[in-house]
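Why run this: before we spend reagent on co-expression, it is cheaper to look at a predicted model of the complex and decide which construct boundaries make sense. The entries below are exactly what would go into the expression plan.
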Amino acid sequence: MRKQRHSADATFSGDTTGGRVQLTLSGRLGVETVGRLWPDVRRVLEAKGIQSLALDASGVEYCDGAGMALFVYVRRAAARLGVELSIGGLKDDFAGMLDLYPEATFEEQPPETKGVRDFIEEVGMVFAETVCGWRDHVAFLGELTVAMFKTLLHPAGLRIKDFLSVAEASGARALPIIGMLGFLIGLIMAFQGAVLMAQFGAEIYIADFVGMSITRELGPLITAIIVAGRTGSAFAAELGTMKVNEEIDAFTTMGLDPVRFLVVPRVLAATLMTPLLAIFANLFGMAGGAVVMRGLGFPLVTYVNRVVAVVSAVDFMGGLVKALVFGLLISTAGCLCGLRTGEGASAVGNSATRAVVSSIVMIVIADGLFAVAFYFLGI
Amino acid sequence: MQNKPIITVEGMTARYGDVLVLDELTFEVARGEIFVILGGSGCGKSTLLKHMIGLYEPYAGDIKIDDASVVTTQGAERDALIRRFGVMYQSGALFGSMTLLENICLPLEEFTDLGKEARELIARMKLGLVGLADYAHHMPSAISGGMKKRAAIARAMALDPEILFLDEPSAGLDPITADELDELIIQLSRTLNITFVVVTHELPSIYKIADRVIMLDARTKKIIAEGDPAELRDTCDNEWVRDFFNRKGGVANNS
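The model came back. Tokens follow.
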């Protein structure tokens, strides 16, 4: 049986007579040629009843790592079959290269088998991690509360520069997007309302509808969702990258509290900015409603008067309180996720995702609680 | 080695905005030589390397590998050009979402027709070369900085490129591993005629591996010395250059 293969400028032939296998490799054994020779070599070596293996490499002109791998492959096959392998004619340089790869340096360990015990162990680990996660959460909230109180007692300890730059990034720079979304939501609400109310000839009540829903509910909610997407994720990514770069560790080993330096300014700034943004969302939302009302032929003054008559200061303030709480939840979640980042680039991404998702979940839950509380308080 | 140079840098100037980093550098790297770029901290060594591999576009001048310009070549020719060299970045730059084995298998999988068995054997052998075979299934985040560096060298060598660019390969390694790495570089350069362009500070390593060095000056932004390290140590006119090479001259003399 004889197999022969030319691949670009590398050739292989395998000659099996009786139990003796004679392999011949020649030409340029490189990454671009070895791939095509490999299956043929394997086929020859998989034959049954091999008693001896001889490899003639006198024609090998060039041999890189891939070529070496082919030699190693043959060497391993010989070891597996328990037969002697003689490599003849390999140039000294290449033989020296082959010596760089003693089998012991890249042996494969047998893959770990997973039994029932491993499964139980894994379940236990996940449970323990979850519990530790909660503990961390509580510990972090405690640390943050203490740091916040300290800052309130000694306002000079606040990193005012950091606070202002975070306030700018999470507040002032969010204005255009908040304004635009608020306006569009107001517009859409008014339109939807118009279709419904026109059936009863009650278009004037669009003002009530838009004014109440925007100030009490939608203004703060839209603001919170944008802040979660813009600011919460930014906090998590920022602190996460600092964690990966060991900057957080540097704070700790310098005896500085990362919560005071990094978290307090962020949480304070974002918490204070969210209600301010919500005011803008309210304003632009009502402007959106006004555009629809003007389109329906109502004068602007009618709309404004109606809104002022219906929306009380309590409604307005209630919305702002909600926004304040949302801001606190978002910034805390963002910072916590950032500080708990693992190792590597993907961990930062995971933290940002977790920050946004948990923020939004918490916003909705908190919103529900507010609705119940406001109902019982009669607000 | 006296034949046509493999890399030619012609009057290359690099700037970051208004800041001049490298001023009209001109030099050649011969095929098969181990070429070392030296200089004090902040003199633009890594910047030079990043220009040579085409990551940054020079402000002026040109860099050629054989006759193909790293700066202007585009499209399929550029892909072919890029495959001629491997790069090891200072921090390793391993892909964090893959195990070490997968990191090394990736270029083999994308650019060759090798089967899975062959790819994995090659990747394991490369890992074995840098002493990391036991960590084949580890994620980069689970190994130390020095190990990441070694794995990165293994990845740079995956396709057995003609040129290997190494950015501080032995920094952060223990002396024995660093020495083994130097041996490996010499062996690869001798047997496979791979050209090495190495940025390093380690004097023992420089004396051991360098065929030729260039030294960059942070003040003038130009090359202040070029040649054989031992000769520069003894005969260079510039006192700073002699000083640099004499820091650990004793060690080098013994080796």
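Chain A has a mean pLDDT of 88. The first strand of chain A starts at residue 2 and ends at 7. Bring this page to Monday's planning discussion.
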